[in-house]
Amino acid sequence: MADDGMLLNFDLGDFSLKSEVKFTGGRWRDRVRAQRSAKGKPSKSWNGPNGTPLERARQFGKDNAGDGDDDADTPAGDRPAKRQRTAGDGTHTGHRTPYVKAGLPPGQVTSRLFTSNPTATTVFEDAQPEAEPAQPSNAPLTAEAENFHALGLSKRIAHHLSTKLEMKAPTSIQKNTIPQLVNSDSDAFLQAETGSGKTLSYLLPIVQRIMALSHNEDGTGTGTKIHRNSGLFAMILAPTRELCKQIATVLEKLLRCAPWIVSTTVIGGESKKSEKARIRKGVNILIATPGRLTDHLDHTQVLDVGTVRWLVLDEGDRLMEMGFEDELKMIVGKIREEGLKTKNEDGVLLDKLPQRRVTVLCSATMKMTAQRLGEISLQDAVHVTASKSDPAAAETNDTVFSAPAQLKQTYIIAAAKPRLITLLALLKSTFARKGSVMKAIIFISCADSVDFHFELLRSAPPTPNDTSRTTGTVAEAAYITSPANHKIALFKLHGSLPQPIRTATLKAFHEETDPCVLITTDIASRGLDVPTVDLVIEYDPAFAVDDHVHRIGRTARAGRPGKAVLFLQPGCEEGYLAHLQVSMTGQSSESIIQKSFITPIMLPKKSATDAEAPVLNSDKSAMKRAEALQLHIEQRLLDEKTGQKLLDAARQGFRSYIRAYATHVKDERKYFDITQLHLGHTAKSFGLREAPGGIGGGPTRRVVKGHAAGKKRKNGEGGDKGDNNKKNEEVAKPEGLDVNGAADEDAARRMRQKLKEVMNQSSEFNLG
Asked: Where does the Helicase ATP-binding domain lie (predicted)?
């Protein structure tokens, strides 16, 4: 075909053609900024929180971007998708690029551990020489001055206490309580600090007066009038199953000197049919949780309360806090409605027992002026303390009961980002010397957070063929071992676990002979007496001062020394120290890390069959090793093969922690202000590189671990109607709040304001 003679001649100039780059993904501001940069135009700057230009804060290579430092309260769902680059040795290079093409993993952003943290206002005192240990305030009295027989107990009981239980002398509260309950029929309110022996204070008089009906109470005679079918004489109520089990264990040891007296427990978590069978066979002393006892009073006809002489309410303030007021009213009402029998079905006169029904109320922290439980149950009660016995109980002023005098209390100011590493450093230094600490308890606010920290600290995943009850609650620990202690046992306990697992775990912790750590919620804060607990760590502060006193009371019991450590964040939480009104010594997280990470850190094993655990960066300084450990934890969560379970646990633990943070009692919310909590930094303390969404927006739907799939958690400590806690460890999400829904800073600010309003209107309650 011939050329038509047209010639196209375009002048392209001196520059080359440049193809236009199209940016997709991420946030629109980042796309606009990248587009302007590609066109050679200067980037426009938007101001972030506190007036910081986002353009400056988000420059590549800056340490303070990517973890929420530049998006101080921006919800995680609205942050740009970014990724990090690491060098061949796994160290962070600091260079990040926007997520512009599909296929790049979002959310993999890291930041330095010790930058952009708030500065603590607390001035730490220089290290002082160790002072002389204080005289124990809850220790037994000297055997030369006091003995159990002189208090009105029989020689049989006194001999059993001294020879079998190795108790030579009573404590102060026992000295004041036992004669009162043995010789009098009046109600009593027992108030003493934790670990002072309140349980034996009411058990010994009950057993003494029941034995008084027997011919052979002192070992003489050939028979006895009392046996298990002689009637129910005492009922003891406690708020948790664990405390009921402990009371039953103490009573069982005491009753070895009187085997014809029978006790049992009805606490839920097991078949009601078996509980009814034990009641039908006969029982003299019944230990129960309020919910399950109410159920039996309604439906178990063989449960006759006509012979009941004692009703003991142990940890009475906790019973009321957990919402058992209606059940307690019903129990007290049914017992009082039933006529008092003067002889049992065998015709045995009950003249040695109290001639009226005696109520005994016990607590370490209950105030005397505004307590409804005393109005429900007590009549002309005697107020008994470790120092005195006061008949005018109703007129007694409020009394503040502190921790045992020999308990050493300290605090650590740790910012949110290095908080987890500080905990690991503290545990590592705790077990650095052999025999210095045998058992430690870590208190955490909610069950999901307990699950995450247990899975993080366990040395290896459980073996598939292990079918024991404690497979998921007992393991060897990683990160915190030392050359002096190569093996440290790790335990977890919370109310969402099935009752058989809880019982087996607590029993294993009691019997453990190696150094060990128990990670638990407040379910273990009341009344539990575990031998050789040397250290209590409040990783999450208690929801009220009373709970704080009970938590730290798990150590320094019966005259033993102990130590308690409280974690606080810089800012408003530092004011909590003055609120406690306790003399405490403090230190910073940096000092803990410097002291602890001078030795290698043992990482978790890949499998339980591995002979040795890998070591983390043994040639680095303490601070660099801390940053390497944080990076290792974050990369462990992002591992596609093994990290998904731990990542899910971290996200759920973070959400539950944020909700739990808002449930401090009203008077203390100024110290624990949810609006001041940095979500990005807090997420880093869970090994996350950005804060997950879903913190608010509807009620919690949480499946009970260990139960059949699809079963939702019922009210209480993981149980049924007869369970012992009417309030979940989880907090219902405030409806209408969705962290993923804030698209800019204004929306984030409105979300925080709405959250504050909801929290101010919410009722006060604690988590189990």
From this structure: 179-384
